[in-house]
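User: Okay, second chain of the day. Same drill as before: sequence in, C-alpha cells out.
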Amino acid sequence: MKSTTPPTPSVLPHPSSDTRHPSSDTRQPPLLALFQKRIEGDDALLRLASLRFREAGLGAECYAESIEELEWLLGFWPNPDRPVVAHLKRELDVLVEADRDHIHDFAAAFGGRLCGLVIHDQPELATRPNRYRAALRAIGARLEAVPNSPPLFVEYATGLETALFVETLQALHDSERVSGCLDIGHLGLRQVRTAYAARHPGSDPCNLTPQSAELTSVIDDLQESVESALNLVLAVIEALAVPAKPLHFHLHDGHPLSTTSPFGVTDHLSFLDEIPIPFEHHGRCALPPMFGPCGLAAVVASALRGLGPERVSLSLEIHPVDGLLPLGHATPLFLHWLDKANAERMNHWLSVLQQNHNLLKALCHHARP
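Assistant: Same drill. C-alpha cells below.
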C-alpha cells in the first residue's frame, strides 16, 4: 500500500539519450531487483530498501499502478546512476484503447528516466493473435514518437504455450519499441508441468507437496521434469535473440514442491534454495530447484552470447521468505517501532536479494562475450 506521508526527496535517475539499458558498468548488463515493501509496515521499510540497494549498487524494478504511485516510489530511490524498470498493473488489456493510453502516458511521463516498462501477456495472444499483435504494433508506433521513450517488454506470465509467445514476439521483430520479458520461472514451470503430464496424464506436479503420499513413487519423474526446464528457457532465448532488439529478464527459481512463498506460488525462489523432503533421494533430504546457480549461469551466458550486455537487462524477482536478520547500522530507521520483527524480515529478504545479486554479478563477469 502507498503511504500518504511524502518521502524524503531524492534524486531521480538522470535522463539519457539512450534510455534502454543505462549502466555505469559497461562490462555488465543492468542488474535489478524488486524495490518494494511486500512486508507489512510503514515507509521505514522502503528507506531500509533504499539503503540496501545503494550499498549493493542494484537497479530497481518497481510495481506501480499509476504515474503518481511510481513518482512516490521513486522518491525513495537512492541510485540515480542505476536503471529503473516499471512493472505496470497486471490487469492491463492492450486491446482496450484506455489501457493503451495508460502505457503511452507512463512512457511520456518517465521518458529518459526508465529503461523499460513491463506488462503481462494475455490469453488473447492465443485466441485473437492477429488483433493482439496489431495492438502491440500500435503501442510501439506511439512509443517511437515519445522522446526518450523506454521500450515496452511483454512478460511471459499467463502460462500459454511457449511457442505462441515466441511466435508473437518474432512477428514483432520490426517493432523497435516492443520486445519480450522472459520470466524464466514462469517459462520453467510451464515446461515442468508439460513434461510431467506427458508421464502422468491429467496430473499437475504443482498439486504435490513434500508430504504427498505418492511422492516417493513419482520423485524420479518429477525431478526429470524439473531438469527439463533449463533447456526450454535456453531454447526460448536462442529463438528471441534478435540483433538490435533488447530483452528483459525476470530471474527467479522454482520447484513444484516449494511451499515457502507467502503468496502461495511455487516459484519466485532464490537460486540458492533447495527443497527439503521428508525422505532421502540420491542420498539427500533436499531437491535441487529448476535452475540453481549452474542453471542461472547457463541462462546468463546464453543471453549475453546472443545479445551482448547492451541489449540485456536482468531483474531478480525473488519474493520474501521466512527469516529474521538484525538491522545493524540500519536500526536508527526504526527507532519509532516497538516491535521490529517485520523490519528484520524485510532486512532478511533484502539480504537474500543481495546474495543473489552477488551471484548474478559474478556470473555476468565470467560470461561476458
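The chain is about 40% helix and 15% strand.

User: Thanks, on to the next one.
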